Amino acid sequence: MKKNILEAPFVKEMCEATANMYRLGWDERNGGNISYLLETEEVGEYLDLDKVIRTIPTGFDASALIGKIFIVTGTGKYFKNVEKDPEYNLGIVRIAKDGTTAELLWGWSDGGKFTSEFPAHMMSHISRLSVDPDHRIVMHSHPTYTIAMNAVCPIDEKDFTHRLWQSNTEAVVVFPDGVGVLPCMVCGTNEIGIATAEKMKSFRLVVWTNHGIYGTGKNMDEAFGLIETVEKTAQIYMLALGHTVNVIPDKIIKELAALWNLTPLEGILE
Ligand code: 13P
Ligand code: ZN
Predict the structure, then answer these.
(1) pLDDT tens string 154-165
(2) Host H or E run for residue 103
(3) Taking burial as the number of CB atoms within 10 A of a residue's CB, which of 157, 169, 239, 242 is the most buried?
(4) Are 123 and 112 members of one domain?
(5) At a CB cut-off of 8 Å and minimum separation 6, what does 244 contact?
(6) Which atom of ligand 1 is nearest to the CA of 142?
(7) Burial of 1 (0-12, 13-18, 19+ CB in 10 A)
């Protein structure tokens, strides 16, 4: 007898995260997407792992993830609706033995499929797992102030990171490893996936210019907390823009990092 999947902690976490992101105004309409690497054994408590509902081609090589199971938001699905109908808005997929097919185990009850940003998600999982075996979450969002700040700053990740660290004492403590920045690119493509995954080898956060941000982590709180802290800091930056008198001096940023035994990304602080 399998347990009720709607009671699974990972389904509840997806519902909670999408609802919070929607209410924070980060994810309008179908904006944003999340993928969460699950433990096969845990999924097996809820689903018959031999029962594949249908297969969906990925359009890229995900061989490094063969056999891995993810819960993912669906393309075109609204974050505001996930909580009230998880089976319509979410899907659980396993990367098949060929590395280029996803096996649907549950969800997308309307015949839907994974987010159009599946390449960026899966390729980012590969990068993050290569540097952190405990990595689990890739979260993409459209937070307003982050996009606004990126629009008024040069496309230079060290400069962008420095401006964030200078605006909020929490920033260097939460993301001492900095924020990667990609130029404006066509989203939903393998190309933006490859570029994002390259950044993800050293960053947990990547901004897509004129579009949004990616956050990653060992759990939902880490990925969410990273984006939340960038967005809060970007809000401060934008509210003060043109009036700023005080920024956090580099000496204090260094001392904040030292207090928490953190090493700030090199090449930013004087
Ligand atoms: P999806 O609806 O395909 O997830 O796309 C939303 C989005 O944010 C594209 O970048
Ligand atoms: Zn997007």
Answers:
(1) 999 999 999 999
(2) strand 101-107
(3) 157
(4) no
(5) none
(6) 8
(7) exposed
For the record, the structure tokens of 141 come out as: 């969002």
Query: What CATH number is given to the structural domain containing 97?
Result: 3.40.225.10
Show the ligand 1 pocket: residues with CB < 6 angstroms. 30-33, 73, 75-76, 115-117, 140, 187
Whole-angstrom Cα distance, residue 140 to residue 227? 9
pLDDT tens digits for 141-153?
Answer: 999 999 999 999 9
Residue ending a domain, choose from 116, 140, 175: 116
CB contact set of 262 (below 8 Å; sequence gap of 6+): 172, 173, 176
Q: Is residue 62 part of a domain?
A: yes
pLDDT tens, residue by residue, 75-100: 999 999 999 999 999 999 999 999 99
pLDDT tens-place string over residues 43-76: 999 999 999 999 999 999 999 999 999 999 999 9
Asked which of 116, 140, 167 is the last residue of a domain, the reply is 116
Domain assignment of residue 8, yes or no: yes
Backbone angles phi, psi at 218, to 5 degrees: -75, -20
> Which atom of ligand 1 lies at the shortest distance from residue 211's CA?
10
